[in-house]
Design brief:
By secondary structure, the chain is mainly α. The chain contains 17 helices and two strands. Strands 1-2 form a two-stranded antiparallel sheet. Helix 11 crosses helix 15. The longest helix has 29 residues. The two termini are 29 Å apart.
């Protein structure tokens, strides 16, 4: 019996949809906890102060900030590895491959932000959240897409991944430029020294993960203390990991494959559980229609469709980009809805944009409602627009998935 359960669990974890399913479960559990008799324990637990000290040097933060600043730095490190690989040898390695996702991603970030700002034009206190609906949750979106099985063309999956990667690059730039605090020059110098050491390790083509991990931790501490958001240390460090090192080893791919299950099945679900919980007591439809949650929900649901589908359509018709083979416009429309699932990245940016608990709760309402409607609409639109037969032979599909 135990062997059968273990085998079933291994099979589940191998599925592309598994990460998205675990994330959905974590978000649902957070909502249940926040609206149950255990709500006080849930919120108080996340507010527990955790201190790490070495001599006179200490970091004292609430548990939720250790999750958002610490664990999420690992998530951003993985994003950095994926971005570097895609630029060197993947979907962003040539203009022919990158032109369509680049244009679509730009539209998918710009239009949601404009919709949010237009809805919140009369509420200056909310305008710091303009970047929230510009984000895409890559794990959630790919998880929903993979639920449709082998009928999904590989080109459509690759396009969604490329758009999400470019979206992540945009989110990283936005966080660096607009959501960092007062800067501490001494700490920035320390971070720069650690980064220079990482570059030196890269130049020596060292294949071991140990020096990269240790120096990344050092840089993360300095960046955390500097006023720049600490997760950016993860991205910067990832850029120094070589694709091919001395002796032919591949540290970037090795670290990416090693981190992926930890991020997909632990870090992102923990983040979702810690940040998706919002009390629904006293919530009415009128609350969802308030400018902040409405701007986020419509920015995601409407803005992503206009931005991704609209910009892609114009780019292809103008000859600026090409539509991938075996992909049609209805499928691109469905993809634009899946890209409107903001969840993890939207909640993350929302926590950076607002300190007022009431605004943070409003962000959660907007993100959850907009992402849920987008996920359902995208799933059912793709379900009716995909071919009835698998898009490729099963053996080929397995090769691509691996």
């Amino acid at each position: 019996m135990i062997n059968k359960v273990s085998e079933a669990l291994r099979d589940f974890l191998k599925q592309e949809s598994a990460g998205g399913i675990v994330l959905i479960a974590a978000a649902a559990l957070a909502l249940l906890a926040a609206n149950s008799p255990f709500a006080a324990a849930y919120f108080d637990g996340l507010g527990t102060q955790v201190t790490v000290a070495v001599g006179s040097f200490s970091i004292d933060k609430a548990l939720i900030l250790w999750i958002n600043d610490g664990l999420m730095a690992v998530f951003f490190f993985l994003i950095g590895l994926e971005v570097k690989r895609e630029v060197i040898q993947g979907q962003l390695s040539s203009w022919d491959k990158a032109s369509l996702p680049l244009v679509a991603a730009i539209g998918g970030m710009a239009i949601p932000a404009l919709i949010f700002l237009s809805i919140n034009s009369g509420t200056p206190a909310n305008q710091a959240g303009w970047a929230i609906p510009a984000a895409t949750d890559i794990a959630f979106a790919l998880g929903i897409l993979s639920l449709l099985g082998p009928r999904v063309p590989v080109a459509l999956k690759a396009l969604l991944l490329a758009i999400a990667v470019i979206d992540d690059i945009g989110a990283i730039a936005i966080i660096a430029l607009f959501y960092s605090g007062t800067l501490d020059t001494d700490m920035l110098i320390g971070a720069a020294v650690a980064f220079a050491a990482l570059i030196a390790v890269n130049r020596m083509r060292i294949g071991s993960s140990i020096p990269y991990v240790l120096l990344t931790i050092v840089m993360w501490v300095f960046v955390l203390k500097s006023g720049v958001h600490a997760t950016l240390a993860g991205v910067a460090a990832a850029m120094t990991v070589p694709l091919v090192a001395r002796g032919g080893s591949e540290p970037l791919l090795r670290m990416e494959h090693a981190l992926h299950p930890w991020v997909a099945f632990m870090i992102i679900p923990i983040f979702g559980f810690a940040n998706a919980g919002v009390s629904l007591t006293g919530i009415s439809p009128a609350d969802l229609a308030a400018p902040l949650p409405l701007g986020i929900a419509l920015g995601l649901l409407i803005g992503k469709q206009i931005g991704i589908f609209g910009f892609a359509f114009v780019a292809v018709k103008a000859g600026f980009a090409k539509l991938p083979e075996d992909v049609n416009w209805r499928q691109i429309h469905g993809l634009s809805l899946l890209a409107a699932i903001g969840f993890t990245m939207s909640l993350f940016i929302g926590n950076l944009a607002f300190a007022d608990p009431a605004q943070v709760d409003a962000v959660k309402l907007g993100v959850l409602s907009g992402s849920l409607v987008s996920a359902l609409a995208g799933f059912f639109l793709l379900k009716i627009s995909l071919p009835k037969e698998p898009a490729q032979a099963p053996a080929e599909a397995a090769s691509v998935a691996s």
